[in-house]
């Protein structure tokens, strides 16, 4: 004998089944979160990069004063005992 499906025999409406809330609720939550993200992105846009960023970046390196504490690790390690030999200031 074939058993009838217990859910079909209930006669309950679709919104009374918890699995339907997962099937419909999770994608709906993703859509709401997407629109919230879109709203945040449109309301507070990122600042535009300065068109002259490359020249300003080169000027930072040119004007920098060499500090022993900021030397690369290899140079600093090789000259730990003799910082005056071969280290350019």
Structure description:
This protein is 54% helix and 0% strand. The N and C termini lie far apart (94 Å). It has two domains: 32 residues; 42 residues, no CATH class. The radius of gyration is 33 Å and the shape is elongated. It is mainly α and 89 residues long. The model has no long low-confidence stretch (mean pLDDT 76). It contains four helices and no strands.
Show the helix and strand layout.
Blueprint: H1 6-10, H2 18-43, H3 53-63, H4 73-78
Q: Which short descriptors sum up this protein?
A:
89 residues; mainly alpha; 2 domains; 4 helices; elongated
Low-confidence stretches: none
* N-to-C span: 94 Å
Sheet/helix structural class: mainly alpha
Q: Which series of helices and strands comes N to C?
A: HHHH
Report the total helices.
4
> If you average the pLDDT, what whole number results?
76
Using the alpha-carbon principal axes, give the shape. elongated
Percentage of helical residues? 40-55%
**Major sheet: size, sense and barrel closure?**
none
Can you tell me the number of structural domains? Answer: 2
Our estimate of the beta-strand percent is under 5%
Number of strands: 0
Radius of gyration: 33 Å
How would you concisely characterize the structure shown here?
It is built from 4 helices and no strands. The chain is mainly alpha-helical and 89 residues long. The chain folds into 2 domains: 12-43; 48-89, no CATH class.
